[in-house]
Specification:
Elements lengths: L1 H11 L3 H4 L12 H4 L5 E3 L13 H10 E6 L1
Parallel strand pairs: 1-2
């Protein structure tokens, strides 16, 4: 939670044009598509997580489902 709060603070310090393009969501990664109501994004980021999972495939699949057709994960 502390990381999310810090991200909120950092984004608040950005110009409106930049801040409005960022959406922070707290949810299990495997449920990200549900938490984001099926929306798709041009970029999906997940840092420092995969290497700690016994099976990262469900999370990677979920993140890929969030990316636009030409989006980056």
């Amino acid at each position: 939670m502390a990381m999310l709060e810090r991200a909120v603070q950092l984004i608040a310090g950005e110009a409106d044009a930049a801040a409005e393009r960022v959406r922070l969501v707290e949810a299990p990664g495997e449920e990200a598509a549900v938490a984001l109501d099926g929306r798709r994004y041009g970029g999906v980021l997940c840092h420092g997580v995969l290497m700690y999972l016994d099976d990262p495939i469900p999370l990677v699949d979920s993140l890929c489902a969030l990316a636009d057709r030409n989006g980056l994960v």
